[in-house]
Write a structure and sequence with these properties.
The structure holds two protein chains of two kinds. By secondary structure, chain A is an all-alpha fold. Chain A contains 13 helices and no strands. In chain A, helix 5 runs antiparallel to helix 10, helix 7 packs across helix 8 and helix 10 packs parallel to helix 11. Chain A starts with a helix and ends with a helix. Chain B contains eight helices and ten strands. The chains are: A mainly alpha, B alpha/beta. Chain A: It is found in: Cell membrane.
């Protein structure tokens, strides 16, 4: 025990001495004679060192991948040992080869194209409607009275609960699907844009008045940039919501699309195809969210300096 | 109803701002109660008053910002009126130059904006975001935004209240210089007696909803704190504000 402590002290001493002058001998040369006085030094140094950290440390590189990789490992291990029945859940490698096959015969691409088109159209109409309604109701008290109530009521009704009615009105074709998605999308866009508008600091409105901005200039220089953070937050909910609504409309009644592909696979018990569909949905959601965040970073660069 | 008419007045040709019998009420209370005040063209007037005396109410009335306030009276002010707020009030999503030229009409606003920024010592910072500036620099941008409009009246609502003492002294010098060049009438609301004496041609004290005292500042520049005339004026103003100067000195020690 005591020799260990002496060694440690000697090393500390040698380490600090090397900084001072190059002519100092190797660590051993300092000898036990020098060990006694530096002992206090090293202890003082240690006491002045940083406190025990209670907060989180620096981020782990690729830390976000830990959980998914662990899941994948468990899945692979379960499939390899036979603990997971292939009829319930296909092995990861089966899913990969199935995905390869689906791509090779073009089924994945054509279904994905159909799904993407539906989501994009629904998103487009939903975002336009939400943005327009939010601007109108955000800028006029009367319009707010007319618009805000119905939107809040719509918010309380899940879009998916409207599907039976929408089928009666629009049939089971593409327009019903696009409308269902648009109805799910416009609510978050409206809510967050409207909120962004209404939380624009009144001081900026006063400023706009004192510099004599016209109504249009006020809209362009104060209202729209002020509501942009809210709108983009709404967009993040909207893109995720679009994919969610897509899943449902494609599994209710469709003859193409990722959801249809999965629904068909269910009837034949092909869990590998179902997993491929799930992975595709997940990737689409992640990608579109990342895209919106990229736009957020670009357009809100005036805030980035605040965030550090 | 709050009135906000432009143009000069007939009976006081030198006055560019003319306020007669101005009343502004919040509930039952008349914050401004028959206030009269004239400002000459290019005159620098400091408005002192205890907190709650209606300084900001008067300033907001002159700025035309008192939308939901009830009141009567005659209000004549030149056009344009520029306002410097206590916070610099820069739009955070616009770069410095875009903030300066916000709503600016006339030929080549960008060149005029650049010139105004150079005047306040911020040449080369045109593309900076407001959050990247210090408090003093932000207030300089705000000054540039006001002066680039060549206002007939500059209203300032405790513009240096949020700045540290050293920055405030620098800003005083800058404001004096800018006002000497652009010659707007200035109404500076402040609670700082020294700031009022150092900057203004005339100090008015608001009390009971009217101008309680109207005192010209006849001190030679530079107005040093040490001079006897300065000390007398300071004491007089503190008295008008209801502060016993001797008591204050004791508490300061």
């Amino acid at each position: 025990m005591s020799t260990g402590a002496a060694e440690e002290i000697t090393l500390t001493k040698a380490g600090s001495a090397t900084d001072g002058g190059p002519d100092t001998g190797p660590a051993g040369a300092a000898g036990p004679a020098a060990a006694s006085p530096p002992a206090r030094d090293s202890r003082t140094v240690r006491r002045l060192g940083p406190r025990r950290r209670l907060g989180l440390g620096r981020p782990v590189p690729y830390g976000w991948a830990l959980g998914p990789l662990l899941l994948l490992a468990l899945w692979a291990a379960g499939s390899a040992t036979g603990l997971i029945d292939a009829r319930n859940l296909s092995a990861p490698w089966t899913v990969v080869t199935t995905a390869g096959d689906l791509i090779a015969d073009g089924r994945l691409q054509s279904n994905l194209a159909t799904s993407a088109q539906r989501a994009a159209l629904g998103l487009l109409f939903g975002v336009l409607a939400g943005l327009f309604l939010a601007l109108v109701s955000g800028l006029s008290r009367i319009a707010e009275g007319v618009i805000d109530g119905p939107v809040q009521i719509k918010r309380a009704i899940p879009s998916l609960a409207l599907i039976p009615l929408l089928i009666l009105w629009f049939g089971i074709g593409e327009s019903m699907k696009v409308i269902t998605i648009a109805l799910g999308v416009f609510v978050p866009v409206y809510i967050h844009t409207h909120n962004g508008l209404r939380t624009i600091d009144n001081r900026y409105v006063e400023l706009a008045e004192t510099v004599g901005l016209s109504r249009t200039a006020f809209l362009r220089h104060v209202v729209l940039p002020g509501a942009l953070p809210g709108f983009l937050l709404g967009m993040r909910f909207a893109v995720t919501g679009a994919w969610l609504a897509l899943v449902v409309v494609e599994q209710v009644n469709a003859t193409s699309g990722i959801g249809y592909m999965m629904e068909l696979a269910r009837t034949y018990g092909q869990t590998d195809i179902i997993i491929v569909g799930l992975v595709v949905y997940g990737l689409l959601g992640l990608l579109s969210d990342a895209l919106v965040r990229l736009v957020e970073r670009r357009t809100l660069s005036w805030r980035r300096t605040l965030a550090g | 109803m709050a009135t906000h008419a432009g143009g000069l007045t007939a009976d006081h040709p030198a006055a560019t701002v003319r306020i007669r019998s101005l009343v502004r009420s919040f509930g039952d209370r008349n914050v401004l109660d028959g206030l009269d005040l004239d400002l000459g063209a290019g005159e620098f007037v400091a408005l002192l008053g205890r907190s709650g005396s209606g300084k900001s109410t008067l300033l907001r009335a002159l700025a035309g910002l008192d939308h939901d306030v009830t009141g009567t009276g005659e209000l004549g002010a030149p056009d344009p009126v520029a306002v410097v707020f206590q916070d610099a009030r820069l739009l955070p999503w616009k770069r410095v130059l875009d903030n300066v030229v916000l709503g600016l009409d006339g030929p080549d606003p960008v060149a005029r904006g650049r010139a105004a920024l150079a005047e306040v010592g911020l040449a080369g910072r045109e593309k900076t975001w407001p959050v990247e500036l210090s408090g003093g620099e932000q207030q300089r941008v705000s000054l540039a935004r006001s002066l680039v409009r060549e206002p007939g009246l500059l209203l300032a609502d405790e513009p240096f209240g949020a700045l540290d003492a050293l920055t405030r002294i620098r800003m005083h010098v800058l404001l004096r210089r800018l006002c000497a060049r652009h010659r707007p009438a200035v109404l500076l609301v402040t609670h700082d007696v020294d700031e009022a004496i150092v900057l203004a041609d005339r100090v008015v004290v608001l009390a009971k909803g009217r101008i309680g005292a109207d005192i010209p500042v006849d001190l030679p520049a530079p107005r040093a704190h040490g001079s006897a005339a300065y000390a007398t004026l300071r004491e007089r103003l503190l008295e008008e504000l209801g502060v016993d100067p001797t008591a204050q000195e004791e508490s300061a020690v």
